[in-house]
Amino acid sequence: MSYDRVAVYCFYDREGNVGRDVFCLLEDLKRNIDFLIIVVNGKLNNENVFQGLADEVVIRGNSGFDAGAYKRIIFDEKYAPIIRNAEELVLCNSSFFGPFIPFAEIFGKMEKNDADFWGISSYERGIIEHLQSYFLVYRKKVLRGDVFFAFFEEYIQEETTDYTEVCAVFENGLFRRLVEAGYGYDAYVKGITCHNYKNPYGSLAIDGLPLVKKKIFSREYFSEKNALDALSYLSQNYEYDVRLILEGAEQIYHISMELESVTSHKPGAVSADWKEGIRKEKREAIGKFVEENKRIFIYGAGVAARSLYMTFFSYKNRPRLEGFVISDDQTVKEKSLSGYPVYKFHEVKDIHEAAVIVGLEKENSRKVRSSLSGIERLIYLWDE
Fold this sequence. Notes:
Blueprint: E1 5-11, H1 20-30, E2 35-41, E3 56-60, H2 65-74, H3 80-84, E4 88-93, E5 96-97, H4 103-110, E6 117-123, E7 130-131, E8 135-139, H5 140-143, H6 147-155, H7 163-180, E9 185-189, H8 200-205, E10 212-213, H9 224-237, H10 242-253, H11 259-264, H12 280-292, E11 296-299, H13 303-312, E12 321-326, E13 336-337, E14 340-344, E15 355-358, H14 362-368, E16 377-380
Helix pairs in contact: 6-7
């Protein structure tokens, strides 16, 4: 039996609890698909909790994150024929609240384009360009080909616990592999300008993203003001029940916020996080630089440097990276990044004979120009 639109939904909760927001999402999603497989990473307190919503429920160990869960289903002898014969495959996870508009509206808009795969949002900051992986849709052309399945088989590890590796390989690597194979892509929200976790208000008000990531309540990113700004804006502009988010914040992160605090709050000014990107021509120039050189170091170990790694070296057909290099006056916080060593500048004796990509933001790039002047094969992210 074949289905037009098949969805694989990856669910995870540390305690195995399913919040009302998840049921809200799944009930709406179910109205727009023909076959729903829920794959649980870890455990469920009630193994029958999805009865009546899911066509199939698979519970697996908590490893591999969402990519590992998808691989488990994609190559299962029971589900593989269903997926390969579908018109569309939806891969989504439980990392967000929403959407705050009906899925029918999202699918309806995206049905008007001829992209081979698409996502709710695309990220085009600097050298990184990809679809954000919390909600992805692959169409018939991709599902009838070999590239998608070959990538999962070779590069996605079901047992990994390295989140950075999963992000680099699954989110960025699969996207790049499909694009290089000639598949076209699109996004419901193109080129977000606000950080999903740090600036949820901007995501809603500027980018028009119809959802909020759950990690805005995590210890790493939580700001009461940011949360109140976002939820107040949400309550004023959408019909979504904000109480579902407040319940989720309490359940998952033990953050307690009152509905009255949200409804009485007046959001402040909002602005984008990213205004200046790196031109497409620079991205192409770096790609050519990578292809032409056999020994390459990335100068830097911060966000820009990691972005370089994720874009050009995050999967096996990009084997030339020898490591990351930092200035001699910097403190080495990590001895390795993504499995590659981190050196101080003086520790690489023959660096002048190698090729170096300077993975620093513009201002820091200016500061190191003089110390790198003797390196013949050198390329910067930023032009003056």
